[in-house]
Write a structure and sequence with these properties.
Layout: H1 6-14, H2 20-37, H3 42-54, H4 64-67, H5 75-81, H6 84-92, H7 98-105, H8 127-142, H9 153-162, H10 170-181
Length: 191
Amino acid sequence: MREIPRDILIEVMEDVIEDLHGHVHRVSDLSVDLGTGVGLGGDDLDRLALAGILHDVGKIHLDPGILGKPGPLNEEEFELMRRHPEMGFAMTRNRLEPKVAEAILYHHERYDGGGYPFGLEADNIPILSRIVLVADAFDAMTSVRAYQPALPVEYAVSEIRTNAGTQFDPTVVDIFLELSSVDRLPLELIA
């Protein structure tokens, strides 16, 4: 199996995705901290770091106009956006370790089964994906996006707490809340 140099993927992704560099590194850093908190070690933390960086790689196939749209997506645009985990998996499944490619594929699955692309639930979702979901959601809420300003950290923490057991794995949320209580959450630096 041939590895794709992640620096090349990041360069390609940066051409398409706004604030990619900051977003993927914050997601990766928080994912590793969460993974450490739930007891993962060694190779799984390395896989988690890479999955955090590459979780949105499938977005390079999407129209930049959709990615940077300064408002809500229409139904057709949203359906296209929902395909990015599968596109990312298709790009990486024969080039990266299976656990990394699977983490990319399932990173929008919800703990209650209401996510996509397959509607998996609870422990049927790989732990790496459950962790990346929390880190990605936190960073999406607390970062400036084309469709919204950065929301307050307190709001994002509250949303993640409120959605434990529905959107998010409660065990991962517990670790997230511990990190939050000691100011260990990576944040976008807004100039």
